[in-house]
Amino acid sequence: MYHARPMKVLGLETSCDETGVALYDTDRGLVADALHSQVDLHAVYGGVVPEIASRDHLRRLLPLIRDVLTRAEVEAPDAIAYTAGPGLVGALMVGSGMANGLAMAWGCPVVAVHHMEGHLLAPMLEDEPPDFPFLALLVSGGHTMLIAVRALGDYELLGTTRDDAVGEAFDKTAKLLDLGYPGGPALAKLAESGDETAVALPRPMLDKAGFDFSFSGLKTAVMLEVRRARERGDFDASRADIAASFQRAAVDTMIAKTIRAAESTGLERLVVAGGVGANRLLREEMARQYPGRVFYPRLSFCTDNGAMIAVAGALRLADAGEATRILTRVRWPLDTLSAPGSAL
Ligand code: KG4
Ligand code: ZN
């Protein structure tokens, strides 16, 4: 990364159910990071409760910032990057208020970061980051997107989901299999002991042109299979097979659409990011089948974290000295972003 002057950027992530804080140094890379997951707080409700999320961010954020700055041996950063959206409005406001307040106290610039741009740029934290341009498969609990990334801020949305996000499909399927919340990692674990050919499930949208996804049909097929297994009285014995078959169908669909997008755009490098990017089968199979080089963030930076927000903020600041003071954007399409320096 080229920088006129080295900069230490504090990143804050509070869009959903993880409080993430990190310090990224444009010279030295990631210096320190900390994460507090609220999973246990929400698990009893089977999903994220927005009010509880906001309150817990408020409780955790300052101690985490203090911890990161102490470990980084930095008194005050040169800039603060925070997730301004998309996400839960109360949760976003905690990060936004903190970032803007601290920036005023420290007299430093503040950068509003798009959460999905953070996910997209997370591989920039690794030793061998991808060069622009690249294709990106962004798969999380709220988003499923295939994007042509031509440069920082130049994102063409090639395809998205028509209904559920793929992470949401993992979570809902996990719920059907009595796996609790959040289901993705638990489902992937259960799938390891199952037979992925046991249950015939649809590969949605593969017969249709274009790069859009749809996961509701797959979810319904799983629901019917669960019902049949319960009626047969062998639900417990079938759970792992259903999990493995679902995972394989979801992964096959993502890989087929991604390869199709690579062929159509001519983009060779691929970034896979977002929570579902932590899925082992997806990582292994994509690396095996994708014709170009595949870049991933490390596992812990696939799901929400402060480091991806810090590096995204640093890149935007380094490019054009961009400082932005917007508050929150609950809905914020990624392809409306522009290159650093132009108006948001
Ligand atoms: O990016 P993320 O932490 O939050 C959002 O921005 O949504 O993604 C969370 C999503 C959840 O749906 C979770 O079940 C899914 O990512 N996930 C996984 C795995 N780890 C997390 N899905 C499948 N396999 C995994 N190993
Ligand atoms: Zn996320």
What does this protein look like?
Helix content is 42%, strand content 18%. It is α/β, with parallel strands linked by helices. The protein has 2 domains: 8-126 and 301-336, 2-Layer Sandwich (Nucleotidyltransferase, domain 5), CATH 3.30.420.40; 134-296, Nucleotidyltransferase, domain 5, CATH 3.30.420.40. A 5-stranded mixed β-sheet has the order 3-2-1-4-5, sandwiched between helices. Strands 8-7-6-9-10 form a 5-stranded mixed β-sheet, sandwiched between helices. The protein is globular and about 65 Å long. Bound molecules: 5'-O-[(R)-(carboxyoxy)(hydroxy)phosphoryl]adenosine and zinc ion.
The fourth-level CATH homologous superfamily of the largest domain is ATPase, nucleotide binding domain
Mean pLDDT: 93
Spatial sequence of strands, sheet with the most strands: 3-2-1-4-5
Q: In what range is the share of β-strand residues?
A: 15-25%
CATH topology of the largest domain: Nucleotidyltransferase, domain 5
Helical residue percent band: 40-55%
Unreliable spans: none
Radius of gyration: 20 Å
* Count of individual beta strands: 10
**CATH architecture of the largest domain, please?**
2-Layer Sandwich
Number of helices: 10
The outline comes out as globular
For the largest beta-sheet, the strand count, sense and barrel status come to: 5 strands, mixed
Kindly give the count of domains. 2
Small-molecule binders: 5'-O-[(R)-(carboxyoxy)(hydroxy)phosphoryl]adenosine, zinc ion
